[in-house]
Design goal:
Number of strands: 3
Number of helices: 3
Shape: extended
Oligomer: single chain
Largest sheet: 3 strands, antiparallel
Strand order of the largest sheet: 1-2-3
Structural class: alpha+beta
Helix content: 40-55%
Strand content: 15-25%
Order of helices and strands: HHEEEH
Length: 131
């Protein structure tokens, strides 16, 4: 049996035929597919949220996770700070440079915290008004 390497085969571009056909899809099929995809993403987000809530319920696991993260970040000459904002009752995670004490990254960012606070103020004023 004689096997020739691929680079020695005499293939010319005209030997290859490409047939392309436009596939038409009805808008309803596309809409159904996008709705299914969105539903799956939302379901995944709910599962992730439930998982995070379960982990937050166990303070020992949370402390262990934070210590592990701090150890890994310390190799980069950075520190991890986690604070709870009293106004929005949510954790704020900051990565800080050790030498300069400069915040490198914050989750959620300040502008998001301000948006949440303003939304809470507006909702509070809407629901606190007497009819």
């Amino acid at each position: 049996m004689n096997i020739n390497p691929l680079e020695r085969l005499p293939i010319q571009p005209q030997d290859i035929q490409i047939n392309m056909q436009q596939i038409e899809k009805s808008p309803t099929l596309q809409d159904d597919a996008s709705q299914t995809k969105t539903a799956v993403v939302i379901d995944d987000n709910k599962n992730l949220e439930n998982l995070m809530k379960e982990q937050l319920r166990n303070p020992e696991e949370l402390k262990k996770l934070i210590e592990e993260l701090q150890n890994k970040i310390s190799y980069l000459n950075k520190s991890l700070k986690i604070e709870i904002d009293r106004d929005i009752n949510e954790p704020i995670i900051k990565i800080v440079e050790v030498e300069t004490n400069k915040v490198i990254r914050q989750i959620p960012p300040d502008y998001m915290i301000n948006i949440i606070k303003n939304i809470n103020k507006m909702l509070g004023s809407l629901f606190n008004e007497k009819v």
